[in-house]
Amino acid sequence: MTFEIGFVMAVVFIMLICLVREIARPDFIVFTALAVLLLSGVLAPEDALRGFANEGMLTVALLFIIAGAIKQSGMLNQVVTKALGSGKGPKKSLFQMMLPIAGLSAFLNNTPIVVMFTPVVRKWCKERNISPSKFLIPLSYAAIFGGTLTLIGTSTNLVIHGFMLEQGLEGFSMFQLAIVGLPASILAILFMITIGYKLLPNRKTSEESFDESSKEYLAEAVVEGNSPLVGKTIEEAGLRSLNGLYLIELIRNGERIVPVPSYHKIKTNDRLIFTGLLSTIVDLQNIKGLRVETGTNLVLEDLQNGTSSLVEAVVSHQSSLMNQTVKEIKFRSKYDAGIVAVHRNDERINSKVGDIKLKPGDTLLLLVNKDFVNKWSNTSDFYIVSPLEEPEIMDSKKSLIAGVTMVVMILLAAFNVLSMFEAAVLASLTLFLTKTITFVGAKKYIQFDVLILIACAIGIGIALEQTGTAAFIAQHFVELTAGAGIIGAILVVYFLTSVFTEIITNNAAAVLMFPISLAMATQLGVDPVPFFVTIAIAASASFATPIGYQTNLIVYGPGGYRFSDYLKIGIPLNLLYMVVAVGIVNAVWF
């Protein structure tokens, strides 16, 4: 082993540790690793930047725009509600939900699909007295199943496709992955409506938990007529620095001020709503001129009216909020919203809101004004999982254009009239020229953090290949599986990719495994394509943890799940996918 190989392995190992420990955003961690390789001279600038010109990465960027146009068209709004049916047979409704979700996610980004339908499914379940925890994990899994069916089902497939083109290979055809993905998806859906349904927990959602425990964290105080606080700002009155309570709303003559600015002046009869540790309520009672309302059953419904509303949001993997306290983030001023409570691991965090250090998967109950959803619905910091009262819907003509454009793009790529990238360019151009989507509108749908992560990860993959690190690792894997032949090598590639996907991002897992599997195929003297198919399926088939795949994270808090719920259902599904994928790859390609 050369010094260069050892150095690259050390950089990649440290990067993996940082990703697992979530010390920063994944895109920043991967960018830092790439920067180290560049500055150390391991990678030339042109190689470090190759990921930013990779055809797969650029295709992902264009598909974000196309999926955005479909989303705002309103075409999908009624799909799942109709598919779910009456709910008289829950297993039948589960099957009817999973099929269209898998079909949609085969052609659209699965993250917005799960974000869009989580509140729809929760509302449907609530109306029929069915626990949403029986449906939300299947919603996420169905979106993952669909991603394994087509070239554009997930960004991971396109990244591997782009790598293959760089190696002078043909790349995946539109439905090549379905050779493995379709049988695996069918068996997985059958598993979910039989054994999986029994294993799914019957729990309260985060929405129900917040509501039921509201008396444990909401308090109200009224400013009396002779109060020395009258005329002072919130800051001057010391209401920003209470030992366990957090001011979320001020009510004056029926008007609600959300959030409450520090400079806002207090008046007589102002009603102040606090959230946090009610054990510290004595702090309020000790403030002269402030009367704490005791014996009143303040509930969440009391916090909202026409100008303010409650919204649930889930902290994402790419969030800039990670590992910072609410106070450090200055959440109130940054997002113009107040955090009422935080839900983590099936329970509310019982501490002062300002002192809570946020983590991916945390569900935030936010008190917001009417502009919040429109302003922040596409942020990468969190996913809004509350129903939107007025979804953004374009006119019927533009909706038709968006749908037809999508279908034509798929057909052009499927029949090899154009490459996937060229078809996506044509589709995007059509949407812009017909004004179906504007440049400003498109920008909010492009997930730049995902693109940066992919581009930087590709640079690290190039370093693994050029320095001989991939060949060095591959040699040891080939020796390890020498007695098991080709099927043993495929099994190792699947297993390693699956493990990486569960602990880091799926795109990073695929990029790291690509050069290693290419080197393994070369050393074995076989076609590398089946190895790449294996990586694509394994990188997407992430079921065993809520942190392995973004759709699992989205439903984690809203479904009231525990980490163990994913292990209980996900490990059998992971094994099912592994057996089907390895078996079919071995039978079809070797």
The total count of strands amounts to 10
Report the sheet-strand fraction.
Answer: 5-15%
Structural class: alpha+beta
Note poorly predicted spans: none
Estimate the mean pLDDT confidence.
Answer: 89
- What strand line-up does the widest sheet have? 3-2-4-1-5
Radius of gyration (CA) equals 26 Å
User: First CA to last CA: what distance?
Assistant: 32 Å
What is the share of helical residues? Answer: 40-55%
Q: What count of helical segments does DSSP give?
A: 25
Largest sheet descriptor: 5 strands, antiparallel
How does the overall form come out from the CA principal axes? globular
Domain RCK C-terminal: 205-290, 298-382
Keywords: Membrane, Repeat, Transmembrane, Transmembrane helix, Transport
Membrane topology: Multi-pass membrane protein
Transmembrane segments: 5-22, 28-44, 56-74, 94-118, 139-163, 175-197, 400-433, 445-464, 476-497, 503-522, 529-549, 569-589
Task: Describe what you observe in this structure.
The protein contains 25 helices and 10 strands. It has helices at residues 3-21, 26-39, 45-48, 55-72, 79-84, 90-105, 110-127, 136-147, 155-166, 178-199, 206-212, 282-285, 326-329, 331-335, 372-376, 396-414, 420-433, 439-443, 448-466, 469-480, 485-503, 506-524, 529-540, 550-556, 563-589, and strands at residues 218-223, 245-252, 255-257, 271-276, 290-292, 308-315, 337-344, 347-348, 363-369, 382-384. Helix 19 runs parallel beside helix 22 (506-524). The radius of gyration is 26 Å and the shape is globular. It starts with a helix and ends with a helix.
